[in-house]
């Protein structure tokens, strides 16, 4: 693919191939693609059986990439993820065995079931994109995207992710049940003949798409809009939201502003544009902010979750009227 070619047809073909297997979940699949293009990681919250594993595995097949799934349990240790040194009796030397984190697409299933030490090991790999074993550094393959899932209906035997660690995820996506029509099609596909997924592109072309995503133009007014949205969660009174202060214990970090702009770039590229618009930021604001806010006890008592607080912020902080759209086309 050349730089002048639009990547939108390739992305559309990729999504079409995945949707031959996965029914519904359009919004979730779009967020997974945004994370892939923006080189971010995804935290997914949803009950079991909503095709989270199937989506990532199918996407890996269409990309000719490697896919690994780790079922997090309380007895896991960091070596089960990143790898360890093993003594070879035949050679009399120690050799390095790499763990399952060395994959293009990694699914960390029920990440909140593992203790903090294991969670930290995974989050370190997400940030550094490399693993150090016995003083030797091993980079993970590129592209590298982690999708971690949480089960919201069961809290017994879980270790909640600390807010500082959750901040490493670009987005947190909520996955809901399918509609009756979608579930009907799901049952039909499961009881019917299996669908063979065709490889549409390669990981090398995905890296090229990621480079094109980094070249998507973002007007300074849109960056200011992202900064104002995030700033309103920290100091609501300065943005005309004095009544919101009692509901927010902690606001979003600067990582939220970066994630919002990077994700908007990816969404613009998926929509066939070389420039981002305010609507791209608005569409992704809840996903980029909801896991970074810490509601106060007053908010919880009144039934206000992070999404409700984000909606109030977005209603008050207005997007720029006419951001520059056509400069990058020249």
Automatic annotation (TrEMBL):
Task: Please give the superkingdom of this protein's source.
Answer: Bacteria
Identify the InterPro entries for this entry.
ATPase_AAA-3 (IPR011703), CbbQ/NirQ/NorQ/GpvN (IPR050764), ChlI/MoxR_AAA_lid (IPR041628), P-loop_NTPase (IPR027417), Sigma_54_int (IPR002078)
Name of one Pfam family that matches: AAA_lid_2
- PROSITE patterns in alphabetical order: SIGMA54_INTERACT_4
SUPFAM superfamilies hit by this protein:
P-loop containing nucleoside triphosphate hydrolases
| CDD domains to which the protein is assigned, alphabetical | AAA (cd00009)
The UniProt record lists the Sigma-54 factor interaction domain at 4-151
Protein name, UniProt field: MoxR family ATPase
Q: Which organism is it from?
A: Pseudaquabacterium inlustre
């Amino acid at each position: 693919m050349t730089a002048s070619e639009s990547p939108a047809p390739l992305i559309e073909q990729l999504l079409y191939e995945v949707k031959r297997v996965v029914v519904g979940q359009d919004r979730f699949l779009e967020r997974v693609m945004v994370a892939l293009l923006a080189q971010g990681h995804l935290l997914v919250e949803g009950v079991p059986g909503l095709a989270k594993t199937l989506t990532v595995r199918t996407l890996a097949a269409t990309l000719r990439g490697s896919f690994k799934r780790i079922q997090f349990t309380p007895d896991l240790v960091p070596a089960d993820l990143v790898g360890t040194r093993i003594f070879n009796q035949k050679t009399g030397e120690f050799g390095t065995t790499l763990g399952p984190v060395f994959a293009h697409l990694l699914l960390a299933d029920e990440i909140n079931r593992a203790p903090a030490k294991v969670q930290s090991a995974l989050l370190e790999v997400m940030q550094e994109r490399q693993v150090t074993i016995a003083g030797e550094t091993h980079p993970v393959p590129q592209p590298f995207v982690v999708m971690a899932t949480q089960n919201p209906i069961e809290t017994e035997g879980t270790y909640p992710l600390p807010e500082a660690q959750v901040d490493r995820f670009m987005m947190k996506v909520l996955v809901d049940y399918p509609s009756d029509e979608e579930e009907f099609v799901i049952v039909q596909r499961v009881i019917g003949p299996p669908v063979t997924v065709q490889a549409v592109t390669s990981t090398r072309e995905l890296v090229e798409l990621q480079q094109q995503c980094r070249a998507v133009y973002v007007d300074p007014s849109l960056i200011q809009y992202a900064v104002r949205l995030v700033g309103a969660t920290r100091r609501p009174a300065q943005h005309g939201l004095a009544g919101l202060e009692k509901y927010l214990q902690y606001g979003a970090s600067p990582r939220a502003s970066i994630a919002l702009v990077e994700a908007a770039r990816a969404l613009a590229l998926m929509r066939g544009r070389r420039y981002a618009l305010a609507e791209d930021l608005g569409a992704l604001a809840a996903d980029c902010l909801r896991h970074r806010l810490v509601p106060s006890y007053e908010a919880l008592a009144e039934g206000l979750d992070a999404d409700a607080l984000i909606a109030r912020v977005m209603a008050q902080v207005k997007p720029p009227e006419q951001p520059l759209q056509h400069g990058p086309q020249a």
